[in-house]
Every structure is written in structure tokens, then in C-alpha cells.
Amino acid sequence: MARRNQNRRNITGILLLDKPTGETSNGSLQGVKRLFRAQKAGHTGSLDPLATGMLPICFGEATKISGFLLDANKRYQMVCQLGVRTATGDAEGEVTDTRPVPPLDAQMVEAALAAFRGPIQQLPPMYSALKHQGERLYKLARQGQHVERQPRPVTIFTLQLLSMGPDTLELDVICSKGTYVRTLAEDIGELLGCGAHVTVLRRLAVGPYQDAGHMITMNELQRVGEEGPAALDALLLPVESALSQWPEVRLSADAAFYLMQGQAVLVPRAPTEGWVRLYQQDQRFIGMGEIQDDGKVAPRRLFQAG
Question: pLDDT by residue (tens digit) across 114-129?
């Protein structure tokens, strides 16, 4: 084990993986980690095995900011099969109910979609990673158990009909953290009177990463990996790319010194509240801070010199 760890590399950055269908998020993470021979890596929000698309992988020091991406808004495109409900809300689950699909037109579908735009209450599905008394809900569901769940507030910023067939809807969704798009599809189906489940799901954006063209597949990674570690490292985005929505604060040498010792510092013309990106005078990003009630910048997530 010690020899294996010696061969691992201490790298920092973010990779936008295009997760393949049929693979778990953790399985994809482990494959990427082996390819990079990285000492430390983590993903930022699971995708179901059925789903494809953007799965940011954080390496090294970037794992310190994974929570910011977990909390970020997400964008999906999905295909809903109307008239059929499944145990999991997607095509991988056992069929639990079938109903005829009423004749639909775009106006009827739009009226249904309008009911889900904005802040809504959503009941988390049993097939989810939420915990009940220390046990994942999906494990309890597989054992045939059912537990009471409380609705949670989420926000659907965009819900657009892209196309429709006699028994299918293709939708574009931008939603807040904690949204279960499988549940959204089921609820839309119920409002239309026939039920539904997801057959295709693709994540196109996470937080500041809005360009799906920047994603890279496992096959592409493997081809690049044949060119050597430097070619792989060239694919990594800097840590601060995940934090572009927060304002930046430039620190003097003295302020940076004290802040790196864990002390809050007063910075002229800094924002008056919220999180901020911290930079030294040499333009080096050193982490995230938060404005305190007294106006000082307190260190929150600091990074080792790289």
C-alpha cells in the first residue's frame, strides 16, 4: 500500500467529466483518480447511473471548495415517458403503475409546467442518498422499507418544453440544489393525469460551468493519458474557476500574512457581506473568506501554496 501511495501525484484542479450512462458517480471518480494517479480527489454531487453529463471532479486542494459546487444551481435535459411510473422514477426501476396518456397539446403541457416554476415543495424519493437514522434511503427502499419524508423547498428557475410526442416530453430544467429531477418528472406526470418516469437524463451545467463543450469523456481522457501526466494536467481548470460568482478581494502583504495565520483582517473597499475570493498582491489565489459583522475579512477556506 505504501508503494502504491508513493506513485500517486499531488495535483490540484478541477476536471469537468462527461459521466457515461450506466456508471455510478463514485465509479467514474475512481476511474479518473486512477488515470491521473491522484492522491486525493472527490466529485461534487452524484448523478444517477442512468444519467450522463457534467460531473466536476476536484483534485487535491480543490476538494476544499467542493461544497460550493454541491450548493450550486444545475441544468438538465431529460426525456419523460408518460403513462408509466417506476419504483425509482427512472427507467432502471420496476414498473409500478401504468395508465393511459390523455390526448395532449402544447398548451396543456405548458399549463402543467407552469405549476412547477419558481419555489416549490418537493418530497424526496425513497431511492435517494438521504439518510434516515444513519441509513441511506435507497438501501431501505431495496429492502422493501418505506419511511416518512418531509417535503423540502427547492426552486425551479427554468422549465421549458423542448419537444413532445404522444407519450413523451423532452424538458430543459435549471434548478436549485437538492432538486430531484426524477421526482419533478413524476409530479408533472401526475398533474397530467397519467404518471411519468425519466428515460434520458443529461446534466449540462453546474454553477459557473455553463459550457457543456468543456466536458471531457472517459474515452477522451484515456487517449490524452497516453501522452503522459502533463497532457492530463493541462485539462484541469484552476480552483477559482468554481468560485467566479463571488467578488474578489486583493490583500496587501501584511493582510495576507495575518489572514494566513487565521486572523480576520480589515481590507479597504471590501464588500460589506458574504463570501469573497482572496488574492495576494502577486495575483495568486489563496482561498475563500467571509465578511464578518465588524467588516473584517475572516479566512474560511485557505489553500496551500502550489
Answer: 999 999 999 877 665 6
User: Among 206, 222, 256, where does a domain finish?
Assistant: 206
Type of residue at 126: M
Show Cβ contacts of residue 219 under 8 Å, excluding neighbours closer than 6 positions: none
Do 214 and 140 share a structural domain? no
Listed in sequence order, the residues at least 6 apart from 243 whose beta carbon sits closer than 8 Å to its beta carbon are 65, 68, 208, 277, 288
pLDDT band at 217 (very low <50, low <70, confident <90, very high): very high
Catalytic residue, from 48, 90, 105, 294: name it. Answer: 48
| Angle ∠(198,159,55) on CA atoms, nearest 5 | 60
139 and 189, same domain (yes or no): yes
Residue 19 CB neighbour total at 10 angstroms: 28
Question: Is 152 in contact with 122 (CB distance < 8 Å)?
Answer: yes
pLDDT digits (tens, 9 = 90+) for 161-205: 999 999 999 999 999 998 999 999 999 999 999 999 999 999 999
As beta bridge partners, residue 160 has 172
- Hey, is 91 helix, strand or coil? coil
Residues 6+ apart with CB under 8 A from 52: 18, 19, 20, 21, 201, 202, 203
Question: The domain spanning residue 34 has which CATH number?
Answer: 3.30.2350.10
Grid cell for residue 299: 479566512
Q: What is the CATH number of the domain that holds 287?
A: 2.30.130.10
- Residue 24: alpha-carbon gap to chain centroid: 14
Largest CA distance in the chain: 70
- Whether residues 15 and 45 share a domain: the answer is yes
Range of the domain at 170: 74-206
Residue 48 catalytic? Answer: yes
Angle between the N-to-C axes of helices 106-114 and 181-191, in degrees from 0 to 180, rounded to the nearest 10 = 120
pTM for the whole structure: 0.90
Same domain, 213 and 262: no
CB neighbour class for 89 (10 Å; exposed up to 12, middle 13-18, buried from 19): buried
